[in-house]
Amino acid sequence: MKFNPAESIQDLQYFGEFGGVNPSISDSSTYTFLSAKTMFDTFEGNADGCYLYSRHSSPSNLYLGEALAAMEGTQTANVTASGMGAITPVLVQLCRAGDHIVSSRTIYGGTYAFLKNFTPKFGIETSFVDITKLAVVEKAITKNTKVLYCESVSNPLLEVADIQGLSALAKKYKLKLVVDNTFSPLSISPAKLGANVVCHSLTKFINGSSDSVGGVVCGTQEFINDLRNVNDGASMLLGSTMDSLRAASVLKNMRTLHIRMKQHSFNAAYLADKFEKEGLKTVYPGLASHPSHKLFKSMMNKEYGFGGMLTIDVGSLEKANELMELMQHNNLGYLAVSLGFYKTLFSAPGSSTSSEIPEDEQKEMGLSDGLIRFSIGLDNNIERTYQMMKKCMIEVGVL
């Protein structure tokens, strides 16, 4: 039977402590034991079902992790306080001084800064490459390489990674393939395509209401146990723990993720098609003009579409700012970073979410000053939205 991520989430059944349809929230930082021996066994990791301290785990966090593991088709998952709180422990856990990472050159600015500026302090070096060219990726692999890192759909240029091709390289050279799937939950299932570890910023589409910050690492039981190890687990020792109240909130929102992603994708596809026909330089994986359109189609879970992210290039930062301010004034969305909200969000990534990347490198990868990144919202009448956006574009001289 074909894997369906939304159905895997819905097949989970929870009962609250008092029979509620939502699991009870574990509003505790520490947990009591009936015997000292059980406490000792739990410290040693030998007491399944027992909770010690919420930095290690909590019932609420495990409920959410179980749902996210079901969504990605992995054995288990570990939730964290932020997306970066998921990504950074994974890379630190997999590498040590003298090791090397091959990463996509177009990734979230925070991840880029971590790999470019922070990990060298610990003797871990990174080569940034065009992830869409497998020959270039393979050429960058050295005897010290331990990890291939990419985003399923890159931030902000929407380049698409050939996860199956990268997985084959990872197996050939005995590497771990780590994939950030934040831009394409449900649409792409990296673990089913060969990724070893899948990360998300839960802050974005998965939570969907821009009121919580969180992250998750999905992988094997062995790897998640390593992350949580009290002696040398990066997640345990770096302490990026998600609060139980937030975990319960995100879990509730996950139940509508499949509905939301279908609408995000429908609206983004509609606008991308209209923008391209107007002559705007438009990038969206659902367009036949996208260089990886066929690749995305070959990997995707079709009913969830090509995602809610698109970009247009209006030529200059001045024009981009003028257009975004006018669209916000006309209630077409918000001039804000992040994504996955019910309203459309737009920003100029070169001066915001990708500002950690030096200007010369931005230009080399094709990140122009006039690029606007859109996270398309859940508008009920997307034709009306398009007409209003078109009017704004005409007013500022983009069309």
Automatic annotation (TrEMBL):
GO biological process assignments: transsulfuration
Residues that bear N6-(pyridoxal phosphate)lysine: 204
InterPro entries per UniProt: Cys/Met-Metab_PyrdxlP-dep_enz, PyrdxlP-dep_Trfase, PyrdxlP-dep_Trfase_major, PyrdxlP-dep_Trfase_small
Membrane-crossing segments per the record: none
Keyword S-adenosyl-L-methionine on entry: no
A UniProt-annotated Pfam family: Cys_Met_Meta_PP
GO terms, molecular function: carbon-sulfur lyase activity; pyridoxal phosphate binding
UniProt keywords, alphabetically: Lyase, Pyridoxal phosphate
Gene Ontology cellular-component annotations: cytoplasm
Cofactors required: pyridoxal 5'-phosphate
Family membership noted in the UniProt record: Belongs to the trans-sulfuration enzymes family.
Name of protein: Cystathionine beta-lyase
Record organism: Polaribacter aquimarinus
Record lineage: Bacteria, Pseudomonadati, Bacteroidota, Flavobacteriia, Flavobacteriales
